[in-house]
Specification:
mainly alpha
Length: 91
């Protein structure tokens, strides 16, 4: 059987542990809230970047043959001439 002094010590020890757990839970809640905010921001940024990539991919697919752009704007297309070299210029 516990003495009164031992019981008081045990209760005080348990109270201390409960307070530590409360502090830990509070800290973890703050971290979770911060991570949720960051996650929301990153998802928004990711959607914006996906849209931007789609825009840029669409732009690189355009050339003078499939848009109103002049032939001089065909930067990303194969710029080789459709004529085949004759091999010997003087033949």
């Amino acid at each position: 059987m516990l003495t009164v002094q031992q019981a008081v010590f045990k209760v005080e020890s348990l109270i201390s542990k409960v307070q530590q757990q409360k502090q830990l839970i509070t800290h973890q809640q703050q971290v979770i809230e911060q991570l949720l905010k960051e996650n929301k921001q990153l998802r928004k940024e990711n959607e914006q970047l996906k849209y931007r990539v789609q825009e840029l991919e669409a732009r690189t697919k355009k050339n003078s043959s499939n848009s109103h752009l002049p032939p001089s704007s065909d930067r990303f297309a194969n710029t080789r001439s459709s004529r085949q070299p004759s091999g010997n210029k003087f033949a």
